[in-house]
Write a structure and sequence with these properties.
This protein is an alpha+beta fold. Helix content is 16%, strand content 35%. Strand 9 and strand 10 form a beta hairpin. It is globular, with a radius of gyration of 17 Å.
Length: 265
């Protein structure tokens, strides 16, 4: 099963993600050996590093581990291919420009009947063959009208569209996903295979860190080292990465994060 990781911080923070123990999820001996990727937002754009092969032993992973990324918002993904061959075009996260802002999407699950949902005639089209990228193009088509003006859409408007999209995706299959427009980070939890083999919630877990160490220290989660002197930091992951108390997302629950904080409605 794929692994998802999303990090939202109040200000710029230094991350090395999808490394060490987190990268071990992508070892050639394990299931998740079909690709990995990291997207780190920088203003309206996003730095993307991804590769259609095992994360474990990757020179690109070593590069990211050595240099890290400095960003207030990061989305990472390790892939187990269920639709589409291991290829760069099929590797998450997927990125597209809309409204002068980069948008990023990563998914854990499968939508075998995703083609039932039509794409807008003049909207975004998939580059690869994954159901996940197709779903992302569906979402962008629904968001396009909101991003057609000069002003950023309201949080409420964006959340409504993403929530309806999430409900439609959940009707087609497991729909754990992370989506960001560079301002907000949306996390939708659904179902995934558990240790006992059953496919059920939770599909994502959440933790909000406010008791941060001093600026010259780091907080090490399983495969994600975060060096910071800012607060707060919020993290979404497929499974808990530390022995702390993580909040499991209920089936169909949609979280909206902004600058390391969980927004309430």
């Amino acid at each position: 099963m794929c692994e998802l990781l999303g990090i939202s911080a109040d200000h710029l923070a230094s991350f090395t993600v999808s490394l060490e123990r987190f990268a071990a999820h992508g070892s050639a001996e394990g299931q998740n050996h079909d690709g990995w990727g990291i997207a780190a937002f920088e203003d309206q754009d996003a730095r993307v590093v991804k590769e259609p092969g095992p994360a474990a032993g990757s020179e690109w992973v070593r590069f990211v581990e050595t240099h890290g990324v400095t960003s207030p918002l990061v989305i990472a993904h390790i892939r187990h291919a269920s639709a589409g061959a291991p290829a760069y075009a099929n590797t998450h996260p997927f990125c597209r420009e809309m409204g002068g802002q980069m948008h990023v999407f990563a998914h854990n699950g499968s939508f075998p009947e995703i083609a039932r949902l039509p794409l807008p005639a003049h909207g975004h089209r998939p580059i690869g063959q994954t159901d996940s990228e197709y779903a992302f193009c569906v979402l962008l088509g629904r968001l396009a009208e909101l991003w057609d003006g000069d002003e950023r859409p309201s949080v409420a408007e964006r959340r409504l569209v993403v929530a309806r999209f999430a409900a439609d995706m959940a009707a087609l299959g497991p729909a754990n996903f992370l989506y960001s427009d560079g301002d907000l980070l949306f996390a939708h939890g659904h179902r995934r295979p558990q240790i006992d083999g059953r496919v059920e919630p939770p599909g994502l877990h959440f933790i909000e860190r406010k008791d941060l160490p001093p600026p010259d220290a780091s907080w090490l989660a399983s495969g994600a080292r975060i060096s910071h002197g800012v607060e707060p930091v919020a993290i979404i992951a497929s499974v808990p990465l530390t022995d702390e108390e993580w909040q499991p997302l209920r089936e169909g629950e949609l979280l909206v994060l902004s600058r390391g904080r969980l927004l309430s409605y």
